[in-house]
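note to self: dont lose this again. the chain is below, predicted strucutre after it. 75 aa total, dont forget to put it in the shared folder this time
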Amino acid sequence: MYIRYIYKLFDLHLACGNHTEAAFTLELHAELLSWGDALLPEDSYYSSQLEWQRKETIILRIIGEFDKGKVISNN
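---
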């Protein structure tokens, strides 16, 4: 349920053109994931994939949103 709300907030930020805030919102999901090889099931946002692959996918999207917002994270 937490991840579902993360993505609702993410979508709201994108709808308002707040790419930086959207990126920070996605970071909340990325922080929950490890770089492990556990197979994660398909959900509303992603197909079935290894945990590290999903984390990488999310981080690349975070970078893209920061780029759109012209902000560089210090993390």
